[in-house]
Every structure is written in C-alpha cells, then in structure tokens.
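I am writing to request your help with a piece of structural work I have in hand. I set the record out below, with my sincere thanks for your time.
___
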Amino acid sequence: MVKIITITLNPALDCSSTTPRIFADGKLRCSAPVFEPGGGGINVSRVIQRLGGESVAIYPAGGSSGENLNNLLLAEGIQIQPLTCESWTRQNLNVVTTLDNAQYRFIMPGANLTAAEQTQLISMLEAYSEAEYCIISGSIPDEMSENLVSNIIQHCRLHNIKVIFDGSGPALEKAVSTGVYLIKPNTNELAALTGAEYLEPEELEAKAREIISLGQAEVVLVSLGPQGALLVTESLCEQIVPPRVKKNSTVGAGDSMVGATIVALVDGLSIREATRRGVAAGTAATMNHGSELCKTEDVESIYQWILKKQPLN
C-alpha cells in the first residue's frame, strides 16, 4: 500500500542551461540543455524517492511535453498516475549566468483542465483511499477554479487522509477554509492569510496559532529561507535553524522540505524530528545548481548538524 500521494495541478517540463551572461538583442550561446520534471508535487515525489520513500505522483499531462515528463519520471523510478489532458504540459526555462552565478527563471503559464478532466482527477483518487498523506503542492493555472483544491481536500477527509498543502494565493485560502493537516507558508503568505500587511518575526507564532485555533490547520511550518523554519502546533513552537551553506539555487528547496518531512512522519518520527529532516533537505537543495533538488548525503550531514545544535531532548 502506498502511504503518500502527491498532486501537481500545474506540472512542467523544466529546461536548464547556462550562458556566460545575459544581454539584449545578441545571440546567447548556451550549454547543452538538461530536461527535468517540474512542478511542486512532482518535485516532492522525486525527493521522497531519493530519501528512500515511496509515493504516487498524480498530475495532468498533455502533448509531447507531457509524454516527455512521464518518461523522465519513470526513468527516476517514480510511480506515476498521469491524467491525460487536452492542453500540452508547459515548459519552463532556467538559465544560470556563469560569470556571476545569477539565476534567471522563465516560468510559462500552465494549462487549464476542463471540468470533465477535473472530475476525472477526483475519481482517480479512489484508487488510493488507503493512503496516509496527500501532498498538494505548487501553483494552480490562473483559469482553473480553486474549488478543485477544496474538492480534493474534502475527498481526502472522507478517507481520513492527512492533507499537506504548499501553495499560495486564493488556493491557499481555499485550502485552509476547508481544513488541512499542515501548511508551509512563507512569512508573506502567512501575513496575507491572516489579514496582515507585514509580520515581524515575533508575530509569526501568534499568527500561526490563529490559524490552528480556527481549525484551519493542525501544523503550520513557516518557511524562513536561510533561517530555516518555524514549527507551530497547538502545543509547541520552535525555530529550526540550519547551518550556513553556499547557495547555488533555490529551486525545489520548499519541495525538498515537504518531502523529507512527510517521509520522516511515515517512518514514525515525531513532528519535531521530521521537520528537522525537512529543514535539512531544504537547505541541502540550495547547495545544488538548477533544479537538481537535494542529495541524500547532504541531507544526512545537515540533519546531524541540526540535531547536535538543537537536540530533541
């Protein structure tokens, strides 16, 4: 039985390359492109696979770009359940300039799902009614109704599946209004979610507890970038701080944090220990170029550093 399913409503075929510098009008000579699977939930499944876990990635796929995405995931050993759709899967471009190590991310608009395709996606979840966790991660195409998020969450609740939502904007608001197990906002997203223009560090706990007290989430894991994350539940609040590392890319850092956290929970670790592994994975992901995600050896090394600096007892 697969205990984790991931849902990506806006998947992508990501292309990464390098060039010395970017300037207008002239031809930019680039290195050979590297194609990788992209999209929040898909990246979470990739991290879970790297860390020895197992999941099923559910996502829409269309056109030749969708077929390429499927093949790349299968080559990594990911279990997939693609929903064949009319619209082609989008393609994104990530370029790093080698002279100054600057990163340029060109994000294309996602494909919308028809009403029939959205209904079909919900139906596909019936095959995984015994899962323990459902991770909904990534953006949602502009024209797609946020009600799909609510419908997925309601379906999961009927089957006692804990939902983790990692997104922003109206979709995040819809998710918490329906009620989920865990959300992973950054400080700006937490501010918007609680009706604030800006939050000082000392305000984060109170705002997170506001969400918990309303029954909108059981766990709020506030992403703090290089400062790690703030874990807030009904009974605890602590900041997990990682070591300083050389940052080469932020692509997939949040997905790495979520994937590592949920693998640890499935393995029976406490939420405190699980989020330490999550912060370690998120930090490890920033050490790599492009969308390479985290490496197992880096995750373990950073995790042990965190445990030494912030022991569980």
Q: What stands out?
A: The longest strand covers residues 12-19. The mean pLDDT is 93. Residues 271-285 form the longest helix (15 residues). The two ends are 33 Å apart (CA to CA).
